[in-house]
Amino acid sequence: MAQYGPYPMHSLASYPGPFLAKIALGQEILKGGENINRIHPRKGTPLHLAVKSLELYNPYGCSISYFDGLKFLEWLLGHGADPRLRDRDGGRSSMDEAVLCVEEQKKLGAPFHFYEDARILMIVAAKSLEEREAAEKKKQPVIYRFFCWILELFGVGRDPDDDKCALCRCLPERKANPHKNCEACEEEKGYHWHYKPVGLGPPLPCDDVD
Q1: What DSSP state is assigned to residue 40?
Q2: Which residues are CB-contacts of 127 (< 8 A; sequence separation ≥ 6)?
Q3: 154: left (phi > 0), else alpha (psi -120 to 50), else beta?
Q4: 26: how many CB neighbours lie within 10 A of its CB?
């Protein structure tokens, strides 16, 4: 995969193009052994970049449109991309990224509906992953499940801000002046995503160099 650079899936996710061509390349990259959830030291996962790159697609185009971007994002999710994973730079998940992009586009008076569509796709995928992990836990010995329950009860490995929405957690102005009764925070509490699932799966690969 050397011809695609040190982060081939990240490179593919970063640039707009017809989704069928991108998916064909993505399949080739996966066959080469690339981890779809590989974390770049500063750019997060390929899913983070797939969300950010949606602005590069023409929202009104009929050749390469935002539909191509969403289809590639959906392909990533279908091949195991985890929308709950956070980048190492700002602690944002790809779902957070979509929310923040919507806010930025609104300020600019620019189209933002494709970010909302992307977030919906990622929420569905995250729910599926949560259900799968819960089912896997049920297969584990009772002592393991009890241990996980204790960790969950006391919030071990969970940041107090995990149940805040992306805007309240990431935007400096919202941090300085928290919104009381924030509906988005209530929604986030309802999801209660496990951003760092305890004891499930191997550590994710993350290189310290570009």
Answers
A1: B
A2: 191
A3: alpha
A4: 22
Contact 57, 16 (CB under 8 A): yes
* Among 161, 170, 149, 168, CA closest to 195: 161
Closest C-alpha among 40, 54, 46, 138 to residue 90: 40
Q: At 90, which amino acid appears?
A: G
Share above pLDDT 70 across residues of the chain, in percent, rounded to a whole number: 87
Alpha-carbon distance of 66 to 41, in angstroms, equals 27
On whether the CB atoms of residues 36 and 42 are closer than 8 A, the answer is: no
Distances, alpha carbon 134 to alpha carbons 93, 144, 157, in Å: 20, 13, 17
Question: What pLDDT shows up at residue 209?
Answer: 44
Distance CA 72, CA 49 (A): 11
Tokens of 210: 């570009």
The Cα–Cα gap between 62 and 180 comes to 43
d(CA 24, CA 1): 14
pLDDT per position as a tens digit, 129-178 = 999 999 998 999 999 999 888 988 887 777 778 889 999 998 999 888 88
